[in-house]
């Protein structure tokens, strides 16, 4: 009987499930959009139970597709998933969610972050590689839940990420049995030792987080349970399938971009646009205070990487398509916009977009999203190019930091949804002055999850060797010198505008938001 493996990705904008055969060819796939709530300006909430429902529904669709093709679901050997590394919810003793799911897009903890950073402690950077707290860290969300969630104060048992929540419920686990893999653990930002893969009691005490709320740390390929009879009925899959501990989405996307060892760079062009470089461990120049970079451990043993991020990168693109262009149901409209934007010159006719739709960070924490310098000639395609360029300018800031530390960025791999846009890929090559590559068989994290699922049940014995033979370059983009020079000049202007000139304006706009929207600031 042919063997199959289930992989899923519980991302910000959607849940995707695939089933692959032993050759890692996709035989069934399904995806469903998630719901994002904005209860207050700067607040972003989701529902881990929706993630669970969507995953089960996608699995059921995949099972039906297999049966329709005459493929035996009884051949499924394992289930492995990934999820958002910077996001948690609180659960009760039975493992049921009792709080909203808060992730990296949320900025409600900005003041608490300032208070933690005012402590000026070295232990954060020494043990985690992250010299400062950040409002996207789950460690900060946990502090917020303990301070503000009555439900968690009364019934809270554990903090849990979205993928482990799904996997634990498929296996019927209680809160006491819940877990986190060693890569997603490092998504907490603070509170652990990145090298020993353990929670740090000293850090947790400083954060006033009780160790009892932390899930146990496991390897991504550890088997944490088996599919229950109830979950089998809901998914259409056979009961008893081994369930893996899962991994972080960023870690799996890195692997899916061929980043298996130190010295490589990748652009994870998803909802949160992330630029990553792999290293042998903590690099002091990159872990200094004020760098704005995040340090994590990877899925594979001994792998580490830094990443800089634009929190509303991909989300800004979706916002523009859905809210401004009113094309929420048309996923192909991205390509229509880019086709038109090809005719718009570098600099978007002088129009600038500031992509801080969920707030800024650091010295521009009160920043907001806005278009500047529009005229009567400004249309959808001009604005679209301005949105792309705005995200690109934030990329330039990040890559300047990497290059300043001596990191070689002569070649950058692009993965996730943004890698499908030719215009966007060429713009990144121009703006970052680097060769850019995409992959033919870049199935993203879900196919990588299937591979690790096969490794977990010992159907693959050398996982790194299998991963190395998986990817093939699809297309290469080279920087156009004239465009690169123009973007460098525009970037300096944009940087001065955002970091210096716009400060008083952001402050005034914040006051207007408070007066009109009652923002909690």
Predict the CATH topology of the domain at 314-397 and 499-517. Nucleotidyltransferase, domain 5
Portion in helices = 25-40%
Trace the largest sheet across and list its strands.
18-19-17-16-22-23-24
| Unreliable parts | none
Biggest sheet: strands, sense, closure? 7 strands, mixed
Compute the separation of the termini in Å: 60 Å
Provide a quick synopsis of the model:
Residues 4-256 form the Carbohydrate kinase FGGY N-terminal domain. This is Xylulokinase. The protein has a domain at 314-397 and 499-517: 2-Layer Sandwich (Nucleotidyltransferase, domain 5), CATH 3.30.420.
Structural account:
This is Xylulokinase. This protein has a domain at 314-397 and 499-517: 2-Layer Sandwich (Nucleotidyltransferase, domain 5). It is of the alpha+beta class. The chain is 38% helix and 20% strand. The termini are far apart. The chain is globular.
What are the salient characteristics of this protein?
521 residues; alpha+beta; Nucleotidyltransferase, domain 5; globular; ATPase_NBD; kinase
Topology at a glance:
Layout (H helix, E strand, L loop, with lengths): L3 E7 L3 E8 L4 E8 L11 E2 L1 H21 L7 E8 L3 E5 L9 E3 L6 H9 L4 H6 L9 H11 L1 H6 L2 E3 L1 H9 L8 E3 H4 L6 E2 L4 E2 L1 H7 L8 E3 L4 E4 L2 H7 L6 E3 L2 E2 H8 L8 E4 L4 E7 L14 E4 L6 E7 L2 H12 L8 H9 L10 E3 L15 E3 L7 H25 L6 E5 L6 H11 L2 E5 L5 H12 L6 H6 L4 E5 L3 H21 L1 H15 L4
Parallel strand pairs: 1-5, 5-15, 9-12, 16-22, 22-23
Antiparallel strand pairs: 1-2, 2-3, 4-7, 6-7, 6-8, 10-11, 13-14, 16-17, 17-19, 18-19, 20-21, 23-24
